[in-house]
Specification:
This protein is α/β, with parallel strands linked by helices. It has 2 domains: about 1-180 and about 340-350, 3-Layer(aba) Sandwich (Rossmann fold), CATH 3.40.50; about 195-330, Rossmann fold (3-Layer(aba) Sandwich), CATH 3.40.50. It is built from 11 helices and 13 strands. It has helices at about 10-15, 15-25, 35-45, 70-95, 130-145, 205-220, 255-260, 270-280, 295-305, 320-330, 345-350; strands spanning about 1-5, 30-35, 50-55, 100-105, 115-120, 150-155, 175-180, 195-200, 225-230, 245-250, 265-270, 285, 310.
Length: about 350
Amino acid sequence: MLVAPLDWGLGHATRCIPVIQALLGHGYEVVLAAENAQASLLQAEFPQLPCLPLQGYRVRYSRSRRWLPFRMLWQLPGLFRIIKKEHAWLDRVIDEHRIDLVISDNRYGLYSKKRPCIFITHQLTIKAPFTWLEKKLQQVNYRYINRFTACWIPDTGGENNLAGLLAHPAVKPLIPVRYIGLLSRFNRKPAPIVYDYCFLLSGPEPQRSILEKKVIGGLRDVPGPVLLVRGLPSETGIPAVPSNVTVVNHLPGKRMEEAIQQSGLVISRSGYTTVMELVSMQKKALLIPTPGQTEQEYLAARLHRQAACYSVSQEAFSMQVHLAAAKAYEQKVAGITVFDPSEIQQLLQQL
């Protein structure tokens, strides 16, 4: 089986980990496909598995929130070329590596008439500034999704769900849609608090680095032990920080789970994978959505209204003001179904 995540931050790769573990636990042979940071992460988690080089979408964000929609539109022709290229790549790889099934996490070109192909996404609705644009994006989105055999959504199907309108639109794709529960590498476990704050940086550049610069600049005003995880698994250098701050470029799954459990407050982007992991661990969190990324802004606002997490924009974020506000925030976390690895066999039999 081939498993390939999108290269839009590390979240698509990390949420594939429970799926890969479930497949391996049921005796399936798995081949990975990725490049750069996503390949490094998956190979660190599964060093025994082959990883085929597959060009990512390599989306770049603008430094300004205002110009982000134009930057994304400018990149669309290149994205469509990569999607077409990866579709042709898949047909070759299926024959060369005798692939029986494909699991694509938001990679639109990894469909084929030769084998069953599963599309994993939490975004049936792609949020946009205008209603007409949102409808147009959904049409394009469904045009690609409908080329797959089935669509798996990492959320619950009932009212007590995480993604809201993102994963629960009025109109769904024509192919079978399955809500498989939250995809989280982590579980809730009691642990002593070692760090007052844990900063988890992630996401596309240059916004990841912009937030990192703002965080490092404010750390001198933060007393007590702090952990900063930069989200750069391929990097080796470490920036200068105050003596009470521990900096790591990346943490593998088990160490990341332990670090989050040992932290009083987690500060992170509101990417869906990160949110799934924090909610599954019932961890108090402060969410800072990537500026202009409408999905993250929608999720952060929705969770703040539901008292599941505290949130603030990157522009408004202040260490002194918002760390204290988040710690004082009365968080309410409703139980949401998490993906059950034992059900992978049943899901595959439904194809």
